[in-house]
Design goal:
Shape: globular
Distance between the termini: 17 Å
CATH class of the largest domain: Alpha Beta
Oligomer: single chain
Helix content: 25-40%
Radius of gyration: 21 Å
Strand content: 25-35%
Number of helices: 10
CATH superfamily of the largest domain: D-Amino Acid Oxidase, subunit A, domain 2
CATH topology of the largest domain: D-Amino Acid Oxidase, Chain A, domain 2
Number of domains: 2
Number of strands: 21
Bound molecules: flavin-adenine dinucleotide
């Protein structure tokens, strides 16, 4: 064990994953978080640990490593999670072609996938709309957590297992080599990692201004089923999601599907909508999402966007017995140059770790181990 100290700014998943990786490397780590609890993108998401969205190679491996760390944490902390996998449903020939090609591709890459007929989908899962259903791509890789629980309890776990402290309500206003300032207090450390998520106006704003990074706003909804024992049995996605994840570009027919969606559902593309459902251990159903890009957004949810999501959801699921409980939005930064993340040194001993986009729950733990190995 060394006596080196590290400060991490931000207690979202990326900050906490970075803190964990630094502690494993022997640092005594303190996280400084401006809010009284983690309130950013990390508690606003689906809780999808989602290897299927990652292309073969190091990103898929990073997702699998992250999932392993999640499971270790969730088991030790006795927090429920559901390794329920995922299904992508095809409702027309173009979606079916893509799904069949992806099935062959993933099978070759030795991923745990199966091509399911409508009748086997009906037997295996609950509530999936059979009307016009052609086929489904099932993958057993995916795991669902309730992010509100998973993120809330992570600080206590990090303290118990890694002796990581978090100072809540501690907004960092400036950083230089070895020193972090919050209000009038200065904190010293050998190493400083800034994981400030969508707040890139406060620290090193001129550096961020030059970077190919933008913010993304997503609208989300939560439902409760009227029947307490209702369980879908997996996480559900439709054809629009096939356009969303990098791993699906392995399908040659994807462009044909894209042209069809451009012609038939232009409003869905305009608002960046693809429809996914995850169900947590309490039975609550998280549904989303849309994608608006910019540096500032209206803080309000747009009902029109939620209506588009619901219309598409009904194509995939029977939702008559679901009651809407909440809607909200979340914002994350995303790289615009095709990179999947951001890791830069801004001064001696000061690093910015950010830009993990819509994959932070899936990738942060593994990504943090990789970047800390480079520090
Ligand atoms: C609606 C939605 C759905 C998503 N679904 C999924 C999903 O299912 N699966 C998946 O893998 N990913 C998903 N994502 C992406 C994932 O949530 C993000 O990639 C991830 O949460 C980003 O983590 P973060 O730590 O960078 O940011 P955040 O969670 O936003 O944390 C940043 C933290 O830094 C703090 N901070 C900022 N500035 C300062 C400062 N100056 N001083 C002190 N503290 C500061 C903030 O208060 C905040 O707590 C989703 C995102 C959204 C918004």
């Amino acid at each position: 064990m060394s006596d080196n100290t590290a400060i991490v700014v931000g207690a979202g998943i990326l900050g906490m994953a970075t803190a964990r990786a630094l502690a494993l490397k022997g640092y005594k780590v303190t996280i400084l978080e401006k809010s009284q609890q983690s309130l950013g993108a990390s508690i606003r998401n689906f809780g999808m640990i989602w290897p299927i969205g990652q292309p073969d190679g190091h990103l898929y491996e990073r997702a699998i490593r992250s999932r392993e760390i999640w499971k270790e944490y969730l088991k030790n902390a006795k927090i429920p999670f559901d390794p329920c996998g995922s299904i992508h449903l095809a409702y027309d020939q173009e979606e079916q072609d893509v799904i069949e090609e992806l099935y062959s591709h993933f099978l070759q890459s030795q991923r745990p996938v199966a091509l399911l007929t409508p009748s086997s989908i009906e037997k295996k899962f609950k509530g999936i709309n059979q009307h016009n259903l052609k086929v489904g791509l099932y993958s057993s890789d995916e795991t669902i957590i309730d992010p509100r629980e998973g993120i809330k309890h992570l600080p206590a776990y990090l303290k118990t297992y890694y002796n990581i402290d978090i100072l809540w309500g501690t907004a960092v206003t400036s950083v230089t080599t070895n020193t972090v300032t919050s209000f009038k207090t200065k904190y010293n450390a050998d190493l400083i990692c800034i994981c400030s998520g969508a707040d890139f106006e406060t620290l090193y704003p001129t550096i961020f201004k030059e970077l190919p990074i933008i913010k993304t706003k997503l609208q989300m909804m939560r439902f409760v089923p009227n029947e307490s024992s209702y369980r879908i049995g997996t996480s559900v996605c439709g054809g629009l999601s096939l356009l969303h994840y990098k791993s699906f570009t392995a399908s040659k027919s994807l462009d044909i599907l894209k042209s069809k969606i451009e012609a038939e559902l232009p409003e869905y593309l305009k608002w960046g909508i693809h429809v996914m459902v995850s169900q947590n251990d309490k039975g609550e159903l998280t549904v989303g999402d849309s994608h608006e890009y910019g540096l500032d957004f209206e803080p309000f949810d747009i009902q029109y966007v939620n209506d588009l999501i619901l219309k598409y959801l009904k194509k995939m699921m029977h939702i008559d017995n679901w009651t809407m409980q909440q809607s909200w939005n979340g914002v994350y930064p995303k790289m615009t140059n095709g990179e999947t993340d951001l890791f830069i040194k801004v001064e001696p001993g000061v690093y910015i770790i950010n830009g993990i986009g819509g994959n932070g729950m899936t990738l942060s733990f593994g990504f943090a181990e990789e970047v800390v190995a480079k520090i």
